[in-house]
Request: fold
Amino acid sequence: MTPSYSTDTESLQAATTTASPPADWGAVAVRLLQGVVYHDDNADTWECLQRSVSQLTDYFSKIGLQLIVDEADAMAYLRQPDDDEIAPEYDHVPRLFRRSPLTYDSTLLCVLLRDELRQFEEEDVQNERCVVVQSDLLAVWQAFFPESSDEVKLNRALTVALRKLEDLKFVRQFEKEPASWEVRRIIKARLPLAELERLRQSLVEAASAQSATQADTPD
Reply:
């Protein structure tokens, strides 16, 4: 007997034509699920977000997500609480945002860029954007590698790490020639000062150990 699919097809078509229209803040919700939303990326999106904070907060709370709106830095993002922050009587919600460990290069770059942003906020009162030239960043980057390291290879590794952080929206390319990058303020939320100091110390210790190992290695 040949199965008939007409009923299923008709039901699907009916469901499609009767689907509810998205909420006014639907596009903002999707943007937040994609990553951090900045005021200077799209003013209309930011204004819609500000008008719809209550609705968005309620919507995301139903799936275990917390909406963070940082008015001072004009950015908004989603946070998924850790298991120990959730009351035991609440149902478990699978993690939407998976934590991926960063490589040594990416971690080092995060520390350097976070430090650049801290200095910018403390000392530069004239510019709105924290922009760092890649060649200047390379000069600091080199200090964490053996003196014999090839500068061209180090710059190539730095570029790879920058592209990785660009995917995470920690940076975005500002100019191509000379290469420069804007440090985005979400890095403050992902890497607070206390964590910055801890990581900086561990990287310094790792660099010192690497240099000592190289010095002890016979020719």
